[in-house]
Amino acid sequence: MVDASPENNTPSDVYEIQVHGVSVLIRRHEQWGALTNVPYVHIKDQNDGPGLLLVEVNNGGEHQHPRPAPDGAAA
To answer: How do strand 22-32 and strand 35-45 relate by DSSP bridges?
Structure first.
């Protein structure tokens, strides 16, 4: 966990979880356009090879995010 630090543009505590080679960073944005206190989630697969990341938000179904190969070509 990293404590909130508004002077460093970190308006809320930041939590990072790493499991099975996947890093998930969770925090709240103080403001996002006209909205305030918006959840922010950043997901990174630590695997460098080509592959696929499946993400589901609020039971809205899986969305595919291809992980490009190191040369930039999509998987």
So the answer is: antiparallel
The conformational region for residue 61 under phi > 0 = left, psi -120 to 50 = alpha, else beta, is left
Residues 6+ apart with CB under 8 A from 23: 16, 17, 42, 43, 44, 46
Q: What is the pLDDT of residues 7-29, one digit of tens each?
A: 766 667 888 999 999 999 998 87
H/E stretch holding 37 reads strand 35-45
CB neighbour list of residue 9: distance below 8 Å, 6 or more residues apart: none
**Confidence band (pLDDT; 50, 70, 90) for 30?**
confident
Q: Which residue has the tokens 């999509």?
A: 74
